[in-house]
Write a structure and sequence with these properties.
161 residues, mainly alpha
């Protein structure tokens, strides 16, 4: 559980770079969208990896993201700082996991993920109530699962049309 009663201090460089998505979270306009765009850009080269390595990468980024997000939140004294966008990166990766990455799926995945991240259908919004880094990350991971299912459904319908 985050101790938000401690006085704010400066986060460490490495956790800050991770939590802010290499600084994309400092975007003055829509940092979540900037983090999602970074996630999409970082996913593109991941297509050369097999599914097993992609899953491992998503898990590692998610777990490291939990720790980095919690570190930054604690240091800033803010429960869910807007600059933390590693959750958007991991959510985008889940949205695109095990799907063919084409310009269509990349664009649709980005738009679907952003829309679902704003809407936060059940139980995603409730997952924000988890403590610390898990509360920051879990809702976007759930939205990423939903986004993946929506894209799969759209691809299935397209193939039958």
């Amino acid at each position: 559980m985050a101790d938000l009663t401690a006085p704010p201090s400066r986060p460490g460089l490495v956790p800050a770079l991770i939590a802010t998505g290499l600084g994309s979270g400092y975007s003055p306009l829509a940092p979540g969208t900037a983090g999602s765009a970074l996630g999409l850009l970082l996913w593109w080269p991941m297509q050369t990896l097999g599914l097993r390595l992609q899953v491992v990468a998503v898990l590692v980024v998610s777990l490291v993201g939990v720790a980095a997000a919690e570190h930054v939140a604690l240091r800033l004294g803010i429960e869910d700082p807007g600059i933390v966008v590693i959750d958007e990166v991991a959510g985008m990766w889940l949205t695109l996991l095990a799907l063919p990455l084409t310009p269509w799926t990349a664009t649709a995945g980005f738009l679907v993920f952003r829309a679902l991240d704003v809407w936060k259908p059940f139980p995603a919004r409730r997952l924000e109530l988890l403590h610390g880094g898990w509360g920051i990350m879990a809702d976007d991971l759930m939205v990423g699962v939903y986004g993946n299912l929506v894209l799969r459904g759209a691809l299935w319908l397209w193939a039958r049309w």
